[in-house]
Write a structure and sequence with these properties.
The protein is mainly beta. Helices cover 13% and strands 36% of the residues. GO terms for molecular function: hydrolase activity, hydrolyzing O-glycosyl compounds.
Length: 838
Amino acid sequence: MIKNAIVGLIFSLAMLGCTGVEKVRITEDFNFDWKFHLGDEAKAFEVNYNDSAWENIRLPHDWSVAHSFTQENTGGATAFLPGGIGWYRKKFHVPLFFKDRMSWVEFDGIYTNSEVWINGHYLGKRPYGYAPFSYLLSPHLRYGEENVIVVKADRSAFLDSRWYPGSGIYRNVKLVTVHKSHIPQWGVFITTPHISEQQAEVKLACDYVLDDVKRDFKIKNTIYFKGKVVASNKSDVNTITKGRDKGTLFLSVKVPNPKLWDVTDPNMYTAVTELLVDGKVCDVVENNFGIRSFHFDAEKGFFLNGKKTLLKGVCLHHDGGLVGAAVPRGVWERRLRILKQAGCNAIRTAHNPPSEEFLDICDEMGFLVQDEAFDEFQNPKDKRNNYNQQSEDEETKGYTYFFDEWSERDLTNMVLRDRNHPSIIMWSIGNEIEWTFPKYGNATGYWGSTKVGDVNYYWDEPPLSIEKIKELFYQSSDQDILVETAHKLSSVIKRLDTSRPVTANLVIPSVSMFSGYADALDIVGLSYRHSVYDYCRRNYPDKVILGTENWTRYHEWKPVVENDYMSGIFMWTGINYMGESHQWPFRGSGSGLLDFAGFEKPSYHMFRSLWNKKPHVFICTQTIGKSPYLLKNDQQLDEKVKDWSKRQKWGWQEVNRHWNYMEGDTVIVEVYTNQEAVELFLNGTSQGVKKLSEVNDHILKWAVPYKGGEIKAQAVNGSAESVIKTAKDPVDVSIQVDKRQLVADGYDVAHVEVQLIDKDVTPVRHFNRQVKFDISGPVKLLGVDNGSPGSVQDYQSQQVITSEGRCLMILQSTREKGKAEIAVTMGAVTKRIELEIH
């Protein structure tokens, strides 16, 4: 939910300020009362266009996710969901007394190729679907009358991305009205360069705009912590700014006994910045921030507030499963809370700027963030085969077509919007860009320079010497556009923020480390290259290196623990995401620790055992034929594929959370734990003790002849255990709801989780049934899902077939108060729950 960025106390003091208006800055939630039409309408931008038949909607809005999965005019890259052209219209009134003020509209993101009109006047376009931007409305507003704002989003190129991007105005919109003397959008930049236990220096760079250069002005900053004033300072006009109608003032505020922001205790402060003209308050801006210090060291890794901290990170795409790209705050909160419980403390926003709201949550929950800008530069990636695409057709034409013209503006807006978030510790300019540059800088390109015959290095150190790789790479004197672009983008960031390092996710470091690409970076991120960590350290000892895209496997985490110079990793991925599918009917990638519905997967428990010190034991099973193991003599197990480079890498091996097999089957029991030793029991009979010190993959394994009943894994020290039981046919459902009371604001959400159970209340995970929902009362159905990558059931439906016996429904409040009733039906069984909307 968008909140007015205003402190009530300051407002009351600022009444009848510059203009005699009660509030000096008004930030309105502009998400409500829009009209939407899917399909091109040539005259929809006209003021008098008849939109009475259009759909009434509230933003954020993603039209693609509302449709059925299909193979017609879609593709696996974008989750088999349609694109198209969508139009939005909103009518609104502006008070007559606003005529002497300024108003602008702020869009946090429109996907994609957006165009905006106000009262028939064309304001401009924005090709990049992830960039925040704004338009000045004042010159074209009709004060005291009705106004019409119109937005067109063009996603005719329905394969313009390698993952599901969503369609339409899928992020929040604000309408901001200020005095002509004001602080511009993103006009306050806050840093905390000097921190001690006794005092923290908070530096603020404050931009201003004046309507009259002859007037006297000041800027005042007041720092709040938990609603109380802890420091303040005021800056007078100086000789540099005097006589100028716009500029920047620099202030420093001392905060005594600071409460630091960190991943375990994310303390947040608020800076309230006032612009005073002739002694009257003309503008007030509020920014939340954290007091913290951090640095990366090439030898020792990452330090937060002076303490060595390992980045236990995941990469996240921006979709929220059944809600698509228009993700309510509560959906992100649930997902991030579950990741946090596993010990995750860092997020890479792969491969685009996230929403402002997402970063607010990261600030509040204590996640460290790598804020990423682009997946492509000038050259496209193939949306069909996920490799280098030599040319774009109309279906796949994406941002690369506009990159040279728009990238600096889009990157600038990302940094300006996001730079006050304490969660952000680095900026990333791009993801795996090198393999799209085969023709620049040389005849063989980045990828070709590492080839030996038809084999590229991937799993081991480069097969060629650095000298030989250089020889291949420098065969041509052509200009290296990649290096030039990387330096340009890095310099854009450095002009705006020198308090954070710049990085990129490199997939061919054996070339990028010497080509000049890595020289544009403060931190070298490595994509699936744990095999060259030591190689990079030996040959480029001054470079800070980091795993920025890694498989969800123990061997990816092991080098971080064993090498001081490694700061951490970002696994691919934290949550299953839509898109990047290579076959129907799979809607997306199953590589996450959580599935599409936000349910925990077995790999989640592996990393919970690695990242969380709280005792943890998790048990799962599989028949030996479907397992990655061979049974040898004396019940000993061996890997079917010994070469780890040829094993499954993305995602996790197929394992089950049930104990339902055929009598006599040989079943492999896998246990993930952070305890030294675990004993396995089958119906109370010990199957032996296994120790982590005896395995090299952090997985304890037993081969057990199947017998119905109970299988239990128990830490030898008694600290934790995990039990699964043989389930009978499902006869009932258990229902869990994360919220029984919702705020009637049109934003709040409740997650309803349903699990099939048998007559003994044992979860039934080997059997699936259809579950139906009947909803009444002041709530909106956002959709249903079962979490499986292979499910292409409609999201916006009141029924769903379970996966592993479970499913999810998400409800959202309206702005009406009352009670909502949900009936959940499975077969002949119906259960009812109530929600209170207040």
